[in-house]
Amino acid sequence: MSNPQLIESLCEECTISLIFEADFAHSRSVDHLIHRRRCNQSIHAASIMTTTLKIAVCLFPLVTASDYQGPIDLLGFLDKNMAPGSHFPELDFNPTPKHNFEIIYLASTKDSVKPDAGPRVVGDETYEDILKKKEQFDILLIPGGSGATPPLVQPVLLEFLKFQASGAKYILKVQASTHLQAITWVAKARWVVDGNVWSASGVTAGSDMVYAFLEHLNGEKIATTLRGFVELSGKQEGDDEFAEFYGLI
Fold it and tell me: Which helix (H) or strand (E) holds 180?
């Protein structure tokens, strides 16, 4: 075994033992047994390869900020640039997440975007930039808002979505327009899954959906850790109390 990532975390004695399979007398000592246990844990953690998925957060004028910010509050703790436990020790994940994320905010221009409510936000890149590079994202996070109605949707955003849709691993929609696909209405759905498309009913439902999405990607333990950290109640797929509030049932 010569994987540098595995050997790097071992003590000197264990490294030699691992490479040359030598039998040292000190291996009977309690201290060394503790070393070996820690080393075995390091080997197990390093053997789990974390795959980075690139997320496009689609911004536009009059977007509902909580439609994307709620999901990002969960997804952002698995940002590839945030070392586990670096900001919050309780988020030093075990087991190692199978997936982390690179989150890119996109807009039609480099100007700040005014949402329905809340502070303006500036995208990292433009849709045109991505179309020119023909860059493919793994996950599309598409929020809704009053600016998502057909007369107001920006043509460059539609062009970007049409280019990305067939190659994306997942599409996450929060109160977003569904005119790009046929739908079956589910009155009490908090969120639904159709193949690789996850759709939430809007606003705080987006956080509930992304909690389930994280459980799908990284398992129950990591998803539950994040849910507890942000104190999210975590409504289930068919448990939307607001269906009755709006007279849908």
Answer: none
Q: 81-89: which pairs have CB atoms within 8 A and are 24 or more residues apart?
A: 88/229
Cα separation, 9 vs 177, whole angstroms = 49
Locate 134 and state its tokens: 């023909």
- The residues of the chain that CATH labels 3.40.50.880 are 51-245
pTM: 0.77
pLDDT, tens only, 75-86:
999 999 876 656
Q: CA-based Rg of the chain, rounded to a whole angstrom?
A: 22
Question: By three-state DSSP, how is residue 59 classified?
Answer: coil
DSSP per-residue letters across 92-161: --SSPPSEEEEEEEEESSSSPBP-SSS--B--SEEHHHHHHHT---SEEEEE--GGGSTTTS-HHHHHHH
* C-alpha closest to that of 164 among 192, 198, 141: 141
Domain 51-245: top CATH class: alpha beta
